[in-house]
Q: What sequence folds into this?
């Protein structure tokens, strides 16, 4: 659970927890997944706000619940197979690191728990869309 304290790639390790969580919830059940996603997002925003105040940092690297929620958005209504998990993981890490618009703007301008989580949600949404485009043209 202490992925955020890793000296190397705490966000990547945090995303691995997202994979485990996505494995445990039924990915193709819209109601259950949607409810879990909503509750997890709200909890991550609150936890990020508390951690930001406690650690006195804009986006503390110790906080990885934003990566977990972002990966959950990335896997939304995508079947949990090994190839899908790996492709979505790579896409999510790419979008989370590059932070294409509006994620980069959110990361720079929103100085609160909502901003910490929202840029990862955007990365997750971009990853989900990119995966669907990729899957449409290449059988995965």
A:
């Amino acid at each position: 659970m202490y992925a955020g304290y890793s000296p190397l790639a705490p966000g990547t390790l945090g995303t691995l927890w997202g994979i485990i969580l996505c494995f445990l919830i039924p990915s193709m059940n819209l109601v259950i997944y949607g409810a879990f996603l909503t509750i997890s997002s709200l909890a991550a925003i609150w936890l990020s706000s508390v951690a930001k105040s406690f650690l006195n940092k804009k986006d503390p690297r110790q906080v990885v619940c934003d990566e977990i929620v972002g990966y959950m958005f990335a896997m939304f209504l995508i079947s949990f197979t090994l190839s899908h998990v790996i492709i979505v993981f790579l896409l999510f890490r790419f979008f989370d690191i590059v932070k294409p618009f509006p994620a980069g703007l959110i990361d720079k301008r929103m100085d609160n728990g909502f901003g910490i989580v929202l840029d990862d949600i955007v990365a997750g949404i971009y990853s989900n869309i990119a995966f669907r485009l990729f899957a449409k043209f290449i059988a995965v």
Notes: The chain has a mean pLDDT of 83.
